[in-house]
Design goal:
The chain has helices spanning about 5-15, 45-50, 70-80, 105-110, 130-140, 165-175, 190-205, 280-285, 365-375, 395-400, and strands at about 220-225, 225-230, 235-240, 250-255, 275-280, 285, 290, 295, 300-305, 320-325, 330, 350-355, 380-385, 415. It is an alpha/beta fold and about 425 residues long. Strands 5-4-3-2-1-14 form a six-stranded mixed beta sheet. The longest helix is centred in the middle third of the chain and has 14 residues, at about 190-205. It is elongated.
């Protein structure tokens, strides 16, 4: 960065860490946008960005969370975060009029070397921003710090040379997380909701001040049937398909539900919830026939296919792949028979996979073992092994799950996701 001094960086970090930060456990005020429901995974981040005048809506009543983030909007957000300093450089980009609302922002980011224009004197104000571009922009904004080359994404070769150090830094700082399957997806367009989440993480966690420690593992407690509780390295508590077992006393930050059947959807059992607790159900996870990905900062949740039998319709059931900050992942099938998507899931590099195998409403033990071959996880765990009343785990049946790299968790046992 050309003129952004250490003093200015320090001032920015004071802003990030004090006056602009929402206290832990306290939600930012509601934005009032009709397309930002309180239960949305990005609601807290959007509300925080609006409250602190970092981002604006596209209209008075709409934020357009799923729309692509443009280069002009990115320049504006960073300029506002810096306190809208004066720029001595005057933008001469042919596609940036002096009357444009983002003129000062573009001029300042260009002056600081944060965002340069294209060849031919254009800035591309309305062009969408990709994930690798945003990593490079934030890296320059932070002063182009050194980074250890250890991001290790499986699509590393697809990252443009100019962005490789930036991606390593962004991953190391937790600014931009990877996607399930150890992918960075550098060319994917990034949405306004995703940028709001990244800005929120960056500014409230002080991403320019690394802790020097690697993220630790999440710890999973198996509660029986399809119910489990996960405590992440960040102290976040996730419940999946709450129904039976012990351990519901910890306040929830996230509740995942695979489908509507009563033995997967006991949300009311979780009475203790943090103020910003989010609930993601199959209804949220499938939108317009598309399975969704939710980047929550401390975990990325990808909905995958489930169903394919008379009891479970693929349009009303999902499984989930959760990827944690240490890069490790788990897959819970939910209630399902073999899905079409399983044949492609080996590319995701899943660490721990939980396969339902009751043989009545779902796959049987043999079919589940064949499904495990398709998914190719490093460890395969049988769960939901019985459909008998009041029997929520049968170890004798679980031991008949003949998948390679099998693990068995009894009710009340824990698993370190590492």
């Amino acid at each position: 960065m050309k003129n952004l001094t250490k003093r200015m960086i320090a001032g920015l970090m004071v802003f990030f860490l004090t006056g602009a930060m929402v206290p832990s456990g306290q939600a930012a005020e509601a934005s009032g946008f009709s397309d930002v429901p309180d239960t949305a995974w990005y609601a807290e981040a959007v509300n925080w960005c609006i409250k602190n005048d970092i981002m604006s809506g596209v209209t008075a009543v709409s934020f357009a969370p799923d729309s692509a983030m443009t280069r002009a909007s990115t320049a504006e957000a960073l300029y506002r975060a810096a306190g809208q300093p004066a720029a001595t450089y005057t933008s001469r980009f042919s596609d940036v009029s002096a009357s444009a609302s983002y003129f000062n922002a573009v001029s300042w980011t260009a002056e600081q070397g944060i965002m340069s224009g294209y060849g031919g004197g254009t800035f591309g104000a309305g062009d969408p921003v990709t994930r690798e571009q945003l990593a490079a922009i934030f890296w320059r904004y932070a002063g182009s710090p050194a980074a250890d080359a250890k991001a290790g994404f499986s699509d590393e070769a697809q990252i443009a040379p100019y962005a490789q150090t930036a991606v390593d830094w962004a991953k190391g700082q937790g600014v931009i997380n990877g996607k399930p399957g150890n992918l960075f997806a550098p060319k994917d367009t990034i949405t306004r909701a995703q940028v709001a989440a990244i800005l929120y993480r960056y500014m409230t966690n002080g991403a320019d001040s690394p802790s020097g420690t690697e993220p630790g593992p999440a710890v999973l407690l198996y509660q029986g049937q399809a119910s489990m509780r996960i405590m992440t390295n960040e102290g976040k508590v996730i419940y999946i398909d709450p129904y039976v077992g012990e351990g519901y006393d910890l306040p929830a930050d996230l509740i995942l539900v695979t489908h509507a059947h009563y033995d997967h959807n006991g949300v009311d059992r979780i009475e203790n919830r943090n103020p910003n607790c989010q609930i993601i159900t199959w209804k949220d996870a499938i939108q317009n026939g598309e399975h969704q990905v939710f980047d929550l900062g401390y975990v990325t949740v990808e909905a995958v296919e489930a169903g394919y039998n008379r009891w479970h319709d693929v349009s009303e059931c999902v499984g989930y792949v959760l990827t944690f900050s240490n890069g490790k992942s788990i897959y819970v099938t939910g209630d399902t028979s073999t899905t079409e998507q399983m044949a492609d899931m080996a590319e995701m590099g899943i660490d721990y996979a939980f396969f339902c195998c009751d043989g009545v409403f779902n796959m049987g033990l043999e079919e589940a073992a064949e499904a495990a071959k398709l998914v190719g996880a490093k460890h395969n765990i049988p769960y939901h092994v019985t459909a008998r009343d009041d029997v929520f785990f049968d170890r004798t049946l679980a031991e008949q799950f003949n998948a390679e790299n099998r693990l068995i968790l009894d009710i009340g046992e824990t698993l370190s996701v590492e």
